[in-house]
Amino acid sequence: MEKRNKVLVVDDEQDILDLLEYNLSKEGYQVETATNGKEAIEIAKKFLPQVILMDVMMPKMDGIEACRQIRLVPKLKESCIIFLTARSEEFSEVAAFEGGASDYITKPIKPRALMSRIAAFFKRDGMENLEESIIRIRDLTIDRSSFTVMKGENRIILPKKEFELLYFLSKNPNIVYNRDELLKNIWGSGIYVVPRTVDVHIRKVREKIGEDYIKTVKGIGYKFEIS
Q1: Among residues 128, 162, 194, which one ends one of the domains?
Q2: pLDDT means per 10 residues in the chain (227 residues)?
Q3: Do 49 and 120 fall into the same domain?
Q4: Using an 8 Å Cβ cutoff, are 19 and 25 in contact?
Q5: For labelling, which of 57, 127, 224, 225 has a CA lying 20 to 30 Å from the CA of 97?
Q6: Taking each helix axis from N to C terminus, what angle separates 160-171 and 196-209, rounded to the nearest 10 degrees?
Q7: All residues at 6 or more sequence positions from 103 whose CB lies less than 8 Å from its CB, including other chains
Q8: Is 1 part of a structural domain of the chain?
Q9: What is the CATH number of the domain that holds 173?
Q10: Per-residue confidence (pLDDT) for residue 78, from 0 to 100
Q11: Are 166 and 177 in contact (CB under 8 A)?
């Protein structure tokens, strides 16, 4: 793994910082740490991490406000921001995603599972840079060049919009998109389509590929989930 893969860890608990820094460094990532939201913003502007792991409740500035401000920095708009928090209330999760979070994970942290999510992000990011048209996740093969989907040995026929919806979500795994974002990315901003259209297309895709891939995040939207 190349040192260009940068991760910023933000938490006011030193033992959490030490645990994550150790595991990330062992995997070959370049790691910086911060203990509050204000410090995180300043370090992020200089360090330009592709992934930011951030607590919610911190002194000086909480993680959600720090996330909002980080999203205003042009060079950090595409960074993956993952919240790691002991707060499991739905309103906290909703606030995090509305503030620009890419993912929300409740503590206690499982290092191996977290490393897998981060590795998946960098793999996906690298595939996009290479303009890869084929996505393979578990038993699914999604080929944009031929608009075909294979589940194991079985070919699945999807209409164009259903295919584009599946491809977009699978290309951006573990990232939650609300209905408006999906409408903009799949149907375009110049076409009027009611948000309910997204729900209908998601349901049809699930009927054809199974229920285990596209997950509903209550009150937020949808994500293509990989563990």
Answers
A1: 128
A2: 75 93 91 96 94 92 92 85 78 76 80 82 58 79 86 89 92 90 80 78 94 92 87
A3: yes
A4: no
A5: 127
A6: 80
A7: 80, 81, 82, 83, 117, 174, 175, 176
A8: no
A9: 1.10.10.10
A10: 76
A11: no
| Same domain as 200, residue 177 | yes
Range of the domain at 175: 133-224
Any idea what the CATH number is for the domain that residue 53 is in? 3.40.50.2300
Burial of 209 (0-12, 13-18, 19+ CB in 10 A): buried
Contact 167, 140 (CB under 8 A): no
- The tokens for 71 are 């999203």
Q: In terms of domains, do 37 and 89 share one? A: yes
User: Tokens at residue 120, please?
Assistant: 């998946």
Joined together, the tokens standing for residue 85 give: 């928090």
Stated pTM of the model: 0.57
Bridge partners, 30 (sequence order): 6
